[in-house]
Write a structure and sequence with these properties.
elongated, alpha+beta, Immunoglobulin-like, five-stranded mixed beta sheet, 178 residues, four-stranded antiparallel beta sheet
Length: 178
């Protein structure tokens, strides 16, 4: 066998035995939205409407799988119920319109985490909101959440408990008479 042919067979054998290339890790390791508690993000489907940031801070956290040498572009869209009546949908029905807040940030080269606060303002509406976050034009968060009035919810719970107590008292009294 010639040296050329032996060398060619050796190269082919080594190529066949080479380890498969590693699959590229995604850029974003984890993306979370919710309420910030110290160093944690508590993900929630329902968030109480609270304007005072000393009581509650909402936002999202992006964690990259590895530091980048160039800036990373992060954009977001916060879709929320509107505050005016008279908006018509495609079928002509009246209802509340929608409002959208847009935001943008850049993660500095070498950083692996971004915490972005998204606080409420007094003019914001209650109802179903949606947050969509893109990192380098790739969606990493796209989910709805309910913004509710905590005082109204407490009031409804108290009324519900009072009704339940009244019903149980009525049942108890009717059982005693028997």
């Amino acid at each position: 066998m010639s040296h050329r042919r032996a060398l060619l067979l050796l190269v082919m054998a080594l190529t066949a035995c080479a380890a498969p290339p590693e699959t590229a890790k995604p850029l974003v390791e984890r993306a979370r939205f919710g309420v910030f508690f110290g160093t944690e993000v508590q993900e929630r489907r329902e968030i109480p409407f609270e304007v005072d940031r000393s009581k509650q801070v909402i936002g999202f956290r992006i964690e990259l799988s590895r530091p980048r040498t160039e800036p990373v572009e992060v954009t977001w869209e916060l879709d929320m119920p509107g505050d005016r009546r008279g908006v018509r949908d495609v079928e002509g029905r009246r209802g509340l319109g929608r409002r959208t807040k847009l935001g943008r940030a850049q993660m500095r080269p070498g950083s692996v985490r971004l915490d972005q606060e998204l606080g409420f303002v007094a003019q914001d509406s209650l109802g179903t909101w949606n947050l969509r976050v893109l990192v380098d034009d790739e969606p990493v968060i796209d989910r709805p959440f309910l913004v509710y009035d905590p005082e109204q919810r407490r009031k409804l719970r108290r009324e519900s408990r009072a009704e339940l107590d009244a019903e149980r008292t009525k049942q108890f009294k009717s059982q005693k008479r028997r």
